[in-house]
Amino acid sequence: MRATRAHVSPSFPLGGDEERVEYDLGLALRLLWYLRPYGWLGLISLTVMALDAVLDALGPYLTKVAIDEHIAKGDLEGLWTVVLLYLGCSGAGAITQFLRVYFLQLTGQKAIMGLRLQIFGHLLRLPASWHDKTPVGTSVSRAVSDVEAIQELFTQGVIVVIGDILALLAIVAALFWLDLRLALVTLAVVPPLALATLIYRRKARRAYRELRSTVAKVNAFLQENLSGIRTVQLLGLEERNGKRFKNLNMAMRDQHIRSIKYTSIFFPFVEVMGALALGTILLYGGGRALQGQIELGVLVAFIQYMKRFFQPVRDLAEKYNLLQAAMAASERVFEVLDL
Questions:
Q1: Do the domain assignments include residue 317?
Q2: Range of the domain at 147
Q3: Considering its fold, how many domains does the chain have in total?
Q4: CA distances to 83, 179, 301 from 88, in Å
Q5: pLDDT at site 85
Q6: For residues 110 and 31, what is the distance between their CA atoms, to the nearest angstrom?
Q7: pTM value?
Q8: CA 35 to CA 227: how far, in whole Å?
Q9: Does 286 reside within a domain?
Q10: DSSP tally for the chain: helices H, then strands E
Q11: Is it the case that residue 88 has pLDDT exceeding 90?
């Protein structure tokens, strides 16, 4: 069973954002179909990630309890209890991280094996006339490099994104539970961060599609020249083909630089937003602590939570790069499977 038929040439952009969103959704649903037989493994991974998010959110809260309830009151015995709880949460977190990686890799490898077998069998069943018109390098690129890009999505993308979202939700809930006013002031950096993320997504989307298309052309050209090296030498095409290969590589270089430029602008902006949030906590929260309106432990917990808050944000941006590469690869793979 297939979700949505995706048969669009990767060399040409789509008409608009609405069409692109619908198209990406169709590709995503079709890719998720390969995970369906291993849904129980995905459920285990999600459960482990939810537990990991809760354990991670407990750390700053335990720090707050240690400072306000025990250090400030000179309660050494109670402090030992909190320290042991903190170490227990850290140890349990290490176990959940191991289980998360293991089950993610297990799920992804099982799913990608099915896709590899399907595309290889389909290539064998295509008529000889199609293979005569299609460069061997293109077929190899679909079955190898494009499938590897999808593998990255299966093993590091889909479920990890959900885990990052769970971590963000746990942190935001903890912030509002500790102090509503300080949480609202601190999270004022979220709207500009969301706007920057939206702009980054739009810029990166096209860059990754163009880059993926050029990489496939480079692979195909190289494969064809190496497999037909005797013909190339016999006809004296070395210089001409060398120039064509150079032009392809220059195009790939320029597209790599373009995609890196967007990343090199976005991630420093995230760092700036993190520093701004930390400065807000120190200025506003510190002022309220001096006035006795909030406890010192709450201020320390906020600082720790904000450091944890921006890590999933960075991860989500990196996973978006991975998602775009996988979407570009999947449209090319499904283009062959739909023949």
A1: yes
A2: 17-337
A3: 1
A4: 9, 26, 18
A5: 92
A6: 13
A7: 0.68
A8: 36
A9: yes
A10: 13, 0
A11: yes
